[in-house]
Design a protein that fits this description.
With 392 residues, the chain is α+β, with helices and mostly antiparallel strands. The protein has two domains: 247 residues, Orthogonal Bundle (Transferase(Phosphotransferase), domain 1), CATH 1.10.510; 115 residues, Phosphorylase Kinase, domain 1 (2-Layer Sandwich), CATH 3.30.200. The chain is built from twelve helices and 13 strands. Strands 2-6-7-5-4-3 form a six-stranded mixed β-sheet. Strands 8-9-10 form a three-stranded antiparallel β-sheet. Strands 1-13 form a two-stranded antiparallel sheet. It starts with a strand and ends with a strand.
């Protein structure tokens, strides 16, 4: 992996190139509602609802979620390039394909049995009322986000069915998910932090914007965030797999997401949890993984993971003082910078009322003013460590 020459003094040089600062400023403006913003590759937001304020958002999303819009699948119109991965939770797989009749470029096509997907959202909800995975929510949320020009989601090209299978075609992202990108990134210490910072900033902005639109993801993970290097203006992250998402912010009795990423309050069945803060917790786990190439714990269920139990009783800082880096064998406290450790402590704070937010509008309203967000943390400042050589 080649090293990129360091930027001149005062000018950041990172994985996303020179234009990322401008784009992130535009995202921040759209998040705070301070001014109508034009995101590179997207359209101008001209109304409060399009910038994510509450009101008609849930009705808008629900109307699109209720649409099936299924087209017939004609196998001869598609060319299989290769299989990307198995889609175990949806009983299918994801293929990289080309459409022979339209200039769509490479397309990721998820194929699933009709017995599972059914013919419509209404039929699915009737047939599988207790399912944690809802493929039509994934489709509907992606369609809605495309409609409002949300830049951090893949383009939905269509939903198709034949006699046995359902096919969901979306734009393919290259080079792929954060899990693979993280594994390929060999630098450690400050050089690694400089490389992952723009990914963290862009991901946090994307999820905060999603929340402002009234949608909680609830399955954020390294596998469900992609990097697309072919975007105009430079590489951009893409959120995928909204099948566990919800339009409700406060939830009781639903545990969602992969075990390492689940906020601990999800396991308290009698108390409603804030789905937005659960997404923040998952983002903290993702950041930990990007920085250390390891998971902090395997499960957040009480008594199931010794590492989680240690952090529960001693705190994350004590864990970082004791845990060794799986690659360089130094203690994590000696590998990670102080600003990053403070940020991680705030994002994976076990008490949701004390956890950092992502800067969403709902936490800036009257009555909750003063709630700290990741945007307040020094590590998220793009100028930190800008003189270090970084990995490309």
């Amino acid at each position: 992996m080649a090293a990129v020459p360091v930027a001149e003094k005062g000018r950041p040089n990172d994985f996303f190139g020179d234009q990322v600062s401008k784009m992130l400023k535009q995202v921040s403006d759209a998040l705070t509602g301070s001014t109508p913003s034009v995101i590179e590759g997207g359209d101008q937001f001209s109304s409060d609802s399009e910038k994510g304020s509450t009101g008609r958002t849930e009705a808008d999303v629900q109307r699109i979620l209720d649409r099936a819009d299924v087209q017939p699948w004609v196998d001869s119109e598609w060319e299989l390039v290769r299989t990307l991965q198995e889609a175990v939770r949806n009983y299918g797989r994801v293929d990289l394909m080309r459409c022979k009749t339209k200039p769509l470029g490479f397309v990721a096509v998820k194929r699933m049995p009709n017995k599972w997907v059914t013919s419509s959202p209404q039929e699915f909800n009737t047939t599988y009322p207790k399912s944690s995975e809802k493929p039509w929510f994934d489709i509907g949320a992606t369609r809605y986000l495309n409609n409002v020009n949300f830049p951090y989601v893949c383009k939905l090209h269509g939903v198709f069915q034949d006699a046995e299978l359902s096919f969901v075609a979306m734009s393919a992202a290259h080079p792929g998910d954060l899990f693979s990108w993280c594994d390929r990134l060999t630098k450690q210490g400050l050089e690694r932090e400089a490389a992952i910072r723009p990914v963290a900033r862009q991901s946090a902005s994307a999820v905060a914007w999603l929340h402002n639109l009234g949608i909680a993801h609830r399955d954020l993970s390294l596998e469900n965030i992609l990097i697309d290097s072919r975007e105009q203006g430079g590489p951009r992250i893409k959120l995928i797999d909204f099948g566990m998402g919800t339009l409700s912010r406060f939830i009781t009795g639903e545990v969602r997401g992969k075990q390492s990423y689940q906020a601990p309050e999800q396991h308290v069945e009698t108390v409603a949890y804030d789905a937005y803060l659960c997404d923040t917790f998952a983002m903290g786990v993702i950041l930990f993984c990007l920085a250390t190439q390891d998971y902090p714990w395997q499960s957040t269920i009480s008594g199931e993971c010794q590492l989680f139990s240690f952090v529960s009783t001693r705190g994350l800082r004590a864990f970082l003082n004791r845990r060794k880096h799986r690659k360089c064998k130094s203690k994590l406290v000696d590998v990670l910078s102080e600003p990053l450790m403070k940020l991680l402590e705030g994002m994976v704070e076990f008490a949701p009322d004390s956890r950092l937010t992502l800067g969403e509008q709902c936490f800036n309203e009257a009555g909750v003013a003063g709630r700290s967000s990741v945007l307040d943390m020094a590590w998220m400042d793009e100028w930190v460590d800008c003189d270090d050589t970084i990995a490309a």
